[in-house]
Amino acid sequence: MRLLASFLLLLAGACSPLGDTPQTAAIVSPILTTEDAKDPFTFAQPEVARVTHVALNLALDFDTQTVAGSATLDILAADDADTVILDSNGLEISGITDEGGAPLAFTVGDAVEGKGSPVTVSIDGTRQITVVYSARNAEALQWLAPQQTAGGKHPYLLSQGQPTLNRTWIPTQDSPGIRQTWEARIIAPEPLTVVMSGLVMGEPVAAGDGKRAFTFKMDKPVAPYLIAIAAGDIVFKELGPRSGVWTEPVMLERAANELTDTEKMIDAAEKLYGPYRWGRYDMIVLPPSFPYGGMENPVMTFLTPTFIAGDKSLTGLVAHELAHSWSGNLVTNANWADSWLNEGTTSYFENRIIEELYGARRANQEAALSFAEMEKTLAEEGVTNPITQLHLPPDLAIPDGGASGIIYDKGAVFLRTVETIVGREKFDAWLESWFDRHAFQPATSAMFLADMRENLVKGDAALEAKLMLDEWVYQPGLPSNAVRPDPAAFAEVDAAAAAYAASGTVDPAAWAKWTAAERQRLLAKLPRELNDQQLAALDRELGLSKTGNNEVLFLWLELALENRYDPAVPAAEKFLSTVGRRKFVAPLFEALMEQGAWGPPIAKRIYAKTRPTYHAVTQGTVDKLVM
Questions:
Q1: Distances (CA, A) of 473 to 150, 212, 310, 416
Q2: Which of 219, 272, 311, 557 has its Cα between 20 and 30 A from that of 136?
């Protein structure tokens, strides 16, 4: 078949050696044709025709909550390819043209749950198409009224594209393995400022009618979920020669003070695993409705304000998102069965950055907390449950699927185990070389293990047996060779928890000198059934309801609600009304819903008020719990 022969030539041209430009590596990766790399959650057929570049020209309308304009797509296709298939979820497409402006025929197929609709475009010989469209109330975009912002004067827009939400506002092939370069021109009303996950191309220019146009460019191929936008009353403060922070004016000093170690983190990350390849590392601290702790959008990490504790005790979040610049952004999971390649590797890398900056004690404590989260998930799900595999089987490998205690924490424990067995020096050299060999490309678990065997194990049968690689990745539960946390990491805190179980008291002086990780450990280790008097004493003596550390506050509120502690309800309601981070919101509503006749009425009352303030990602999770 001529079509297949033509495409095989494309594949051959795409197998670029290390040292080729990112654009060359972006053409087509041969792994996209292997069974384990195929993405069932896209309509695209990258083996026939794929998008390599996206050029957006869009206007933001805050009154109608609409983005409208065009997307010009560069297409790489086999010689005889006559169509390209795009992903869409709710896009209103008014027309598609070729590079000369001639209309192209297209059809929008039936909607499929969890995927949206395919847009099939007749391309004949054209290799560039322009889609004219609009997107209203797109799931990826959250439009905030002024009262939902810290400043309270201007509206705000933020996006969250991962895992498959960008198809609700960008017509492209929305799959993590189909990497694309992109550029954008965005028009917004004054005095709002627009930022995106690309490099700024000059100053904004007047666009008429009290509007300004902002331009951006990402010249390195990225997974399409990493195209991100925010717009609002935001200002910038430089943190170092290649880093800075954007946020609302009233939050700027607090955010900048919390982020003063950013340049040191970049230096530490480069020392570990090679050069930072994205130019700048800027961050934006968003309004609290942002559904995640952070999102690793290249050159513009999105951060929740809940990480601001005033003492840098939660900056592991920043280290995590920075580490994604290597694991996740530089090398990306080809599909959602292998999310652990992004998140587990990043969690391991994060801990190494923390060790470099803050020492082994803090790193060991945070690693122990992570290990405990994994153990909790294994206990809840069962050690034979396939959801506890790193590589998820097809029926569980859905976007945003799996369990964080596995994808993040078991993934990190796996790499820490390999490091311990082979030695840190050898492991670090291999991991850095992995990033180099697969830079700007998608990857699978099979590729990861094959590379480890070829370049780290190197045929050593005894080492292969010790590592138990296939058991770690393809089997549920925890392999017997897992490296466990240093028991000394929380020795004092665990003793205090045991003493509390016997005496019912915690020494406030000891609590005052503990790290944030130690405080979280204690709250996790306390008995799960406590009476009102015990809870009142804990709150009074340790100041739990007044803490500025949101991780500690969340653990306290979860414990209190699980014990139907009425005095905690106002604090929980305030927290749920001002924080949209799913990690915090969903478990608190779940705790309420599980409390017989007491909790569900409280949950439903609070959710009726707070639901409109949450991003669709958070709404989707909590709706299943409460509605």
A1: 43, 50, 39, 14
A2: 219
